[in-house]
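Entry type: protein chain
Record version: 2
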Amino acid sequence: MQDDVPQQSVFRRISTKIIGRPRNINDPSIFHKLSLIALLSWIGLGADGLSSSSYGPEEAFKVIIDGGHTYLAVFLAIATAVTVFIISYTYSKIIEKFPHGGGGYIVATHTLGKSAGVVSGSALLIDYILTITVSIAACGDAIFSFLPLEYHQYSLIFKISLIFILILLNLRGIKESVTILAPIFLLFIITHVLLLGYGIISQASAIGSHVNQFSTGLSGDLQTIGLLGILAIFLRAFSLGGGTYTGIEAVSNGLPVMREPKVKTGKRTMMYMAVSLSLVAGALFFCYYLLDIQPVQGQTLNAVLANNLFGGWPGGIFIAAVIIFSEGLLLFVAAQTGFIDGPRVMANMAVDSWFPKKFAALSERLTMRNGVLVMGLAALFLMIGTNGSIYFLVIMYAINVFLTFSLSQVGMARFTIKNRKKKEHWIRYLLIFVIGFTLCFTILIVTIYEKIGEGGWLTLIITLAVILICYLIRSHYYKIKKAMKKFDEVLLLSSIHLVGHLNTKSVNPKHMTAVILVTGYSGYGVNTFLSLIRSFPGLYKNIIFVSIAEIDSGSFKGAEEVEALKTSVQSSLLKYVQLAQRLGFSADYRMDVGTDVVETASHLCESIAEEFPKVMFFTAKLVFRHETIFHKILHNETAFSVQRRLQWKGLPVVILPVRIDI
């Protein structure tokens, strides 16, 4: 057993070296240090939207190449820019209404109900897993575009390696990862201003011929397939290019990581992303059309565009390679959004009992470690399962994105109607949300219709499976909550049948002392205390109540929320102390603040043992009639973890069983 100690310390040192030292939760400036200004938020969250220009416009343009309808690229450029601004504007209004973030899950839950919320949340989770997978897959494709075909067999290994790198970066912290990736983002902006600016300017002298080509193509299609035929082709291309809009929602979900005032920072970030995405995506359509770009095996359309523009320059191949390399690197940055927002959706759903409670916990680095690991492992599984195919992944991606978009637009429209008396220009807002819903729902239906047999069915099945699991988890927690009500009767009886005066004597370190680990003041905690009295009558003179103010994703939103949590925990402990005093015990309490309940409670108990030599520690654990692996996943086993740590220190710990008959 002693051999384990040096191994653990070595592991700890390695972990600290890779991930970083624990953060000080009591540092009053911690929120300021971890928050992102609008520029960094644009990089960390907006990169997802901007990077989608690497594959969204390409998918749309490939549709109109077939049959020679490339003149529609002009309409697609305009429609794409307008759609970006409409969806971005609706999400700016969502930011105003929900300043604590949460995106589509919170919007649907609060405006349409819990059932709509879990559908939106489940779709978002799959969406963010696909954000990671799609971005890394597109990154690999962009970088390998400039390598000989024989090297493409190593593409999948390269993509898997990038996911592992992002997992490690995000275990260190959001701000650290964004700061490290910032130069990549700036390189993309600079190189693509060169690419798109030169692409349009170089064709200025041929504007007349392109206008004639546009006119000829449009009039020819009007005569052969008619206006409805043209609209059908345009709608199909517009919808299958829906991947262009997939990152817009990320900003509204990531508000908690932004600098105060969060709403102002969030709206500014949204503006940066909307302008940059609309300009880049729109300009790409124009460049594809003006230079008559055609697909080339093993290359993205952007790689073909860069080669066409700079291939004849001295060192032009190098310039083109740098441009596409920056595009690939930006896609790597964009995958970061999945690691920022995915765990946050999990945490919000865990708080509402749709997911195991442990997903709301924070690590020592104040990151949602469990969520980061799940997102990373799920992305790895998808990457391997699809062999890194960007075509297959984008199909899966767009469906869930627009399901969430549609629910959010409906929810905000409903909210606007319900609160129309409070809004002076409510009809204008309602119209925007209706237009947003029409666009998003149209893209959703067309994408499902076109791609249901090419992988779209898998997205729907996975999403339905996640929704089902969420309902099973929530049902379990509901049964636990219902079964725990019997302990509230104990709380009521204990407050009625107390007799005598308060024992206000201070606790004496020389007397036998019982230390009880409790959470909030409830029938469960009172039952644990009364069980101790019944099991060891007259043995203990002192009672010390211990509780940890656990900082999780629900409370880690600002200094005020943390202080409110501390006050709440202290208030509960004082009630326990008063109860013990009325039963004739000398009583006191101890509390601490931390992200890891087990580690924080263990350290606190060790210090109590130094103060009270004659001490015994007590904690409680739920015991089920038929315990399964399902119970172990949904419950943290905190009692056993604390017991193991304290027993290693030579301290006695008793776990009192609390039976739950479900």
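Comment: The first helix runs from residue 4 to 19.
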